[in-house]
Amino acid sequence: SVSAAFWEHLQCLGLQDFPCGLGSWNKSRFDAHRSRCRGQLGLGADPARQEETMLLEEESPEALMELLRDQHSPWALPPDCSPQDQRLREMAVLAPELIRGSNIFRVFRSLRIIDKRVEEVDEGLLRFHQLEELILSANQISRITSANLPQTLKVLELCCNAVADLQDLCAHPPPELQHLGLGYNRLCGPAQDKYLTAAFWPNLVSLDLSFNNFTDLLGLVSQLSSLQKLRILVLQGNPLALIPTYRGFLVDSLPKLSILDDIHIGPDERHQFHGLARQPELIRSEARVVVSIGKIKGVPDPSTCQQLEVGSEAPVITYSYCVTYEF
After folding, report:
1. 103-108 — which CB contacts under 8 Å span 24+ positions?
2. Were both Cys, which of 40, 136, 138, 273 would link to 115 (CB 3.0–4.6 Å)?
3. In angstroms, how far is the first alpha carbon of the chain from the final one?
4. Range list of β-strands (E), 36-149
5. HSE (CB half, 13 Å, CA atoms) of 234?
6. Average pLDDT, integer, range 172-201
7. What is the C-alpha separation between 18 and 92, in angstroms, rounded?
8. Half-sphere CA count of 161, side-chain side, radius 13 A
């Protein structure tokens, strides 16, 4: 589940271990802070003695931070870790109380769990009350229950999973979602087209449906046209992208789009395709593939066979060949 992957990742970060967390290497600093909050000085009444104790027995915050940031340090994070991981560890040095117990859920506004073999989006996500970005790419998710998603989400990225049905996701989707990434999944049209409307995603600005199995261009466009805030759309890699008038029809049908398939839509292109949306008869739901064979090895050339003389009684040998192409 997402929750299990989250806790496993936190253990790898060592947020409660040196040089992070709370321990003998910084204990008096936080004891002093708590004492001041209670109106006491802590470590007796002598500030000089308090500072001397910290210098002799403990590490300064600056020294602890250097252990985290120096790439040659044994406590440095691996290069493939995210900036968020580094911020968490630095927070564990400067304010360890913020990442203890349930407090840690208040810290996250972005959560990235990539390639962790996650299969389930569980209700544990609801503990992240301020989560705005959820990245779950390259996992094994086939079903998403919207009831388990924080309603504060603005970005949901599910690229490279096994999602084949949007019904559960669209039961109670996050109302403020601005980006939905569903590229490289198993979505098929037209059964899923009906879930891509403003009734489910009223604030959607960016939508990635690349490399799925959408085939009905007219049907999909009729649903997407209700997304009044949509500015970025990615459909490349779907069968419908093979239709000759694919780009022109989309550009003219969705006049508010700014970027289609990672290519900016300029005024000249809009003018070029103006009026194409009113000519759906030009859209043919088929594609032609032309295969040119340059050379086949191992098959005798029939033209080199000598012609038999008229009246010859020599046996005639014929050959048949079957060549199969798999796409």
Report:
1. 104/10, 105/129, 106/130
2. 138
3. 36
4. 110-112, 133-135
5. 16
6. 95
7. 10
8. 29
Both tokens of residue 298?
Answer: 């191992």
Give the Cα separation of 110 and 133 in Å (integer): 5
Q: Write the DSSP symbol of residue 73.
A: S
Q: How confident is the model at residue 77 (pLDDT cuts 50, 70, 90)?
A: confident
- The pairing of strands 155-157 and 206-208 is unpaired
Per the CB < 8 A criterion, the answer to whether 163 and 185 are in contact is yes
Among residues 276, 182, 186, which one has the least CA distance to residue 234? 182
H or E element at residue 260: strand 259-260
pTM, to two decimals: 0.73
Residue 43: pLDDT band by 50, 70, 90 thresholds? very low
H-run or E-run covering 7: helix 2-13
| Identity of the highest mean pLDDT range in 35-44, 169-178, 292-301 | 169-178
DSSP states along 20-31: SSSSTTTHHHHH
User: pLDDT tens digit string along 85-109?
Assistant: 777 887 778 777 777 767 788 888 8
Is pLDDT at 137 greater than 70 in this prediction?
yes
| Cβ pair 186, 164 in contact under 8 A | yes
Does 110-286 carry CATH code 3.40.50.1000?
A: no
Burial 110-142 (b: 16+ CB within 10 A, else e): ebbbbeeebebbeebbeebeebbbbbbbbbebe
Rounded to whole angstroms, the Cα distance separating 225 from 223 reads 5
Boundaries of every domain in the chain: 1-34+55-107, 110-286
